[in-house]
């Protein structure tokens, strides 16, 4: 292939075509093409093509060594993985004999040994365990379905998405351009234009199960959806569909247990956040048959209204939750303000779940600050009440180390909560109390009362 034609392919980002014609030219042409590949993001298809070139070299003259093979081996040492190591390791003992007895073959043998040493240092010795089956993304000719499977297998990795984008762009599919735009950024207007034209098509089979207007895309795929208010059957029948595989955030409606089949399906590898779930839905997640990847839940406890006790199985879920071993942040929303439910938190803090959490947020009336403080909590590391009161767990001395009050703007409900909370708090409960509430400290009628309440609470 003429060098100008190949460089035109490179300008369009047609990687498959670039690799299929990589060695179709002179030594100087191929060396320049390898330099172009070295400037691209690491891609398993590049590593696969270079590996095949090493296994069956197109050029073996002495003059090709410094011009072509030195930079090629250098690039392969940089981007090669365990699969490359497994492919090339068997050549180590007889590579020079395969190439014929010559000065050049000895030089290639030396370069191969150096490459293998670098890969072994990074990935460990080649073994059957390392010789994993080739993924679709490492093949020059790939099918859409196989490349999509690679994306869904590791939804947190951008590389399979970039590979799929190249594949689609080479075939004139606008989805490829959209994926590239979201991965690289820089043209929000074009992103919005493409999404407006193709959103339902790209969401596909789950479109009727979610709120299309609320669906958000990131890195080329749907990432945040709401199933709030959607028909039960429409949601349930989509459980396990591949489109769910890139979704990180799902919003539900309190008391809507319909999406449990979706949320607990193994395809939900990317799921990290669930909001609006009711307590029985939480129970189903907590006792799922396999550990879920969910890290954050916003939970609405309907049965805390009035003085009705929580169901025993919900108590069990709050204290154990073996299906939520990755849960790090939990927000508990109660509907009954000022009713008081110490048994709820008592069950919670006695369980193993609390020991795993980084952050626990509680939304109810401000009297809960005192309730929580008296439970003897030692974890999680951060407890927030009503997004205003932040508690730090107990120190070795037995007291909670800090209470931080963050109240930048006035609010019709919380105006009557902060000062009474401090006035009714057991003196000396915290080692330190810090407040950031300019809306209160600047009020000439409230500031003196706040100062007196702080002094009393600090003991």
Tell me about this structure.
The protein is α/β, with parallel strands linked by helices. Among the domains are: 3-137, no CATH class; 388-459, no CATH class. The protein contains 22 helices and 11 strands. It has helices at residues 3-12, 15-20, 27-38, 44-55, 64-79, 82-88, 95-99, 103-123, 144-153, 159-170, 174-184, 188-203, 232-236, 260-263, 279-286, 312-319, 342-350, 352-356, 368-373, 418-424, 438-441, 447-458, and strands at residues 216-218, 221-226, 249-251, 273-278, 296-301, 329-334, 359-363, 382-385, 389-394, 400-406, 433-436. Strands 1-2-3-4-5-6-7-8-9-10-11 form an 11-stranded mixed β-sheet. Helix 9 (144-153) packs antiparallel against helix 10 (159-170). Residues 128-142 and 335-340 have low confidence and may be disordered.
Kindly state the percentage of residues in helix.
40-55%
Strand content of the residues, in percent? 5-15%
Summed up, the helix count is 22
User: Mind describing the biggest β-sheet?
Assistant: 11 strands, mixed
Span between termini: 83 Å
User: What integer value in Å does the Rg equal?
Assistant: 30 Å
**Class derived from helix and strand content:** alpha/beta
DSSP strand tally: 11
Label the overall shape.
Answer: elongated
Low-confidence stretches: 128-142, 335-340
The chain-level mean pLDDT equals 80
For the largest sheet, list the strands in their spatial order.
Answer: 1-2-3-4-5-6-7-8-9-10-11
Summarize this structure briefly:
The chain has 459 residues and is of the alpha/beta class. The chain has helices spanning 3-12, 15-20, 27-38, 44-55, 64-79, 82-88, 95-99, 103-123, 144-153, 159-170, 174-184, 188-203, 232-236, 260-263, 279-286, 312-319, 342-350, 352-356, 368-373, 418-424, 438-441, 447-458; strands at residues 216-218, 221-226, 249-251, 273-278, 296-301, 329-334, 359-363, 382-385, 389-394, 400-406, 433-436.
């Amino acid at each position: 292939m003429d060098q100008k034609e190949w460089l035109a392919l490179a300008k369009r980002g047609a990687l498959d075509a670039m690799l299929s014609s990589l060695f179709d030219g002179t030594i100087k042409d191929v060396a320049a093409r390898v330099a172009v590949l070295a400037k691209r993001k690491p891609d398993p298809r590049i590593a696969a093509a270079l590996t095949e070139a090493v296994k069956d070299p197109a050029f073996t003259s002495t003059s090709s060594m410094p011009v072509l093979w030195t930079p090629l081996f250098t690039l392969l040492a940089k981007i090669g993985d365990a699969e490359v190591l497994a492919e090339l390791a068997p050549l180590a003992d007889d590579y020079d004999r395969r190439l014929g007895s010559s000065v050049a073959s000895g030089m290639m043998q030396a370069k191969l040994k150096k490459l293998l040493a670098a890969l072994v240092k990074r990935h460990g010795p080649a073994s059957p365990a390392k010789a994993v089956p080739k993924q679709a993304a490492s093949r020059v000719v790939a099918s859409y379905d196989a490349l999509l499977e690679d994306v869904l297998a590791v939804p947190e990795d951008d590389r399979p998405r970039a590979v799929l984008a190249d594949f689609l762009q080479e075939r004139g599919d606008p989805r490829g351009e959209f994926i590239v735009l979201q991965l690289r950024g820089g043209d929000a207007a074009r992103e919005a234009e493409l999404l407006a034209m193709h959103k339902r098509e790209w969401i596909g089979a789950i479109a009727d199960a979610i709120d299309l207007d609320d669906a958000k895309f990131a890195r080329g795929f749907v990432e945040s959806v709401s199933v709030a208010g959607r028909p039960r059957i429409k949601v349930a029948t989509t459980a396990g569909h591949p489109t769910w595989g890139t979704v990180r955030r799902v919003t539900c409606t309190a008391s809507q247990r319909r999406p449990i089949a979706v949320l607990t399906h193994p395809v939900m590898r990317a799921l990290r956040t669930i909001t609006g779930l009711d307590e029985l839905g939480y129970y189903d997640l907590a006792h799922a048959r396999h550990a879920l990847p969910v890290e954050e839940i916003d939970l609405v406890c309907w049965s805390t209204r009035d003085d009705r006790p929580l169901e025993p199985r919900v108590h069990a879920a709050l204290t154990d939750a073996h299906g939520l071993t990755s849960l790090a942040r939990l927000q508990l929303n109660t509907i009954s303000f000022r009713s008081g439910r110490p048994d709820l938190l008592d069950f919670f803090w006695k369980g193993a779940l609390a020991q795993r959490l980084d952050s626990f947020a509680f939304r109810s009336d401000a009297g809960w600050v005192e309730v929580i403080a008296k439970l003897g909590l030692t974890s999680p590391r951060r407890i927030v009440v009503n997004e205003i009161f932040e508690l730090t767990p107990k120190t070795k001395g037995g007291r909670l180390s800090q209470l931080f009050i963050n109240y930048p703007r006035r609010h019709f409900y919380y105006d009557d909560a902060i000062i009474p909370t401090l006035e009714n708090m057991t003196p000396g409960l915290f080692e330190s109390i810090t407040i950031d509430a300019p809306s209160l400290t600047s009020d000439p009628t409230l500031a003196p009362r706040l100062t007196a309440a702080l002094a009393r609470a600090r003991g």
